[in-house]
Specification:
Shape: elongated
Number of domains: 2
Keywords: Transferase
Organism: Alloyangia mangrovi
InterPro entries: CoA-transferase_III_domain, CoA-Trfase_fam_III, CoA-Trfase_III_dom3_sf, CoA-Trfase_III_dom_1_sf
Protein name: CoA transferase
CATH architecture of the largest domain: 3-Layer(aba) Sandwich
CATH superfamily of the largest domain: Crotonobetainyl-coa:carnitine coa-transferase, domain 1
Helix content: 25-40%
Strand order of the largest sheet: 8-7-6-1-2-5-14
Strand content: 5-15%
Oligomer: single chain
Radius of gyration: 26 Å
Pfam families: CoA_transf_3
Length: about 400
């Protein structure tokens, strides 16, 4: 896989493929590399952001503004199964690295373009980041408590929605290629992807003609559902079925609510939310969070504490599933990383490699994949075409002619 992407939407997708066994060659600009290399905080001089999205990839640093740099990229693309990019529409075509150009040299190539809005959008040439996609998708309008200001999701889902759907498209195109022998141009827009993930929210509008309103942690059509205050904190309760609602009413000592016509069915509870929730809050406010977590589990009611990121990462579930691994960086020492969640026959991804320094793998890739000699690499580095970290003793003028 030849990965021209940067920031988040593309790098997350290529990292998942690396977890699944793909050889990912990440193309980076000469001086600063992927922009996220400069985002604090850092371990040594390596950014947390870059570490989070670029494990198990090879970094090849090349000047794509030079003819020789473009030639190197095309030579690698001719050998690749997948090319991934997330520039604005038209950028790769202007570089001579668009789908049509690379397909002519490699008809089996699966070429994936992640954009903010797609080439046919009135927003097509505008820059797009996670928060822009979230705002235009409608998700920010409901991600808040009633009466509060719109808020973005804590997760960068605007970017990651593009990542998810690009993975679906790439894997489907690879599967098709086994039958046809031909590649595809997979195109995914972040905004389209996030709108596709609205789920029942879009259908509420189509069915009722009314736009969904913010309900905070509550659910727009299921009651009770959400965070409920206890004597010392909050507990999540989720009564998605009538059985769970009955269990919950018994759990809080209010079994009579089950037969109350105001609360006996989904629609009735929704219409009478304002009457039911104060009853629940009054009962749950009498006891601690720990008390309710134990009691809710005893009555088989879906529940959870609200954990911080640190607490979530250190919880027993994460340890039991081996979701955190430690990799050794040759200069920076041990790094903890979150592993991919996919299991095959009960086994997760192979152990990860630490994220590469900028250009760390340039020489290895060009020698191993394209057969470049050391003399060619030295010449290219001296001319500012690549960054290869060659030994200084080797960097002597190359005689030609």
């Amino acid at each position: 896989m030849l990965d021209f992407s940067r920031i988040l939407s593309g790098p997350y997708a290529s990292m998942v493929l690396a977890d699944l066994g793909a050889e990912v060659i990440k193309i980076e600009p000469l001086e600063k590399g992927d922009d996220t290399r400069g985002f604090p905080p850092f371990i040594g001089d390596m950014s947390h952001y870059y570490i989070a999205l670029n494990r198990s990839k090879k970094s090849l640093s090349v000047d794509l503004k030079s003819p020789d740099g473009i030639r190197i990229a095309r030579e690698l693309a001719a050998q690749s199964d997948i090319v991934l990019e997330n520039f604005r529409p038209g950028v790769m075509d202007r570089l001579g690295l668009g789908y049509a150009a690379l397909k002519a040299e490699n008809p089996k190539l699966v070429y994936c373009s992640i954009t903010g809005f797609g080439k046919n959008s009135p927003h097509g040439n505008k820059p797009a980041f996670d928060i822009v996609a979230q705002a235009l998708s409608g998700v920010m309008s409901v991600n808040r408590e009633p009466g509060q200001a719109p808020n973005k999701l804590g997760l960068p889902l605007g970017d990651m929605a593009g990542s998810f759907f690009s993975l679906f498209g790439v894997l489907a195109a690879l599967h098709e290629r086994h039958v046809t022998g031909q590649g595809r141009h997979v195109e995914v827009a972040m905004l389209d992807s996030l709108i596709a993930m609205q789920g029942y929210l879009s259908q509420i509008y189509f069915v009722t003609g009314q736009t969904p309103q913010p309900v905070g942690t509550q659910h727009p059509s299921i009651v009770p559902y959400g965070a409920f205050a206890t004597a010392d904190g909050h507990v999540i309760v989720a009564c998605l079925t009538e059985r769970f609602w009955h269990n919950f009413a018994r759990c809080i000592g209010r079994e009579e609510l089950i037969a109350d016509p105001r609360f006996a069915a989904y629609e009735a509870r929704l219409q009478n939310r304002a009457a039911l929730e104060p009853i629940i809050l009054a009962e749950m406010g009498r006891e601690s969070t720990a008390y309710w977590l134990e009691r809710l589990s005893e009555f088989d009611v879906p529940n959870a504490p609200i954990l911080s990121i640190a607490e979530a990462l250190e919880q027993e579930h994460v340890a039991a599933h081996g979701l955190i691994e430690s990799v050794e960086h040759p200069e920076l020492g041990p790094m903890r990383l979150v592993r991919g969640p996919i299991l095959f026959d009960g086994v997760g991804p192979s152990p990860a490699d630490a994220p590469s320094r900028l250009g760390e793998d340039t020489a290895k890739v060009l020698q191993g994949r394209l057969g470049y000699s050391e003399a060619q690499l030295i010449e290219l580095e001296l001319r500012g075409i690549i960054k290869a970290h060659l030994p200084m003793a080797s960097k002597h003028p190359v005689k030609t002619g």
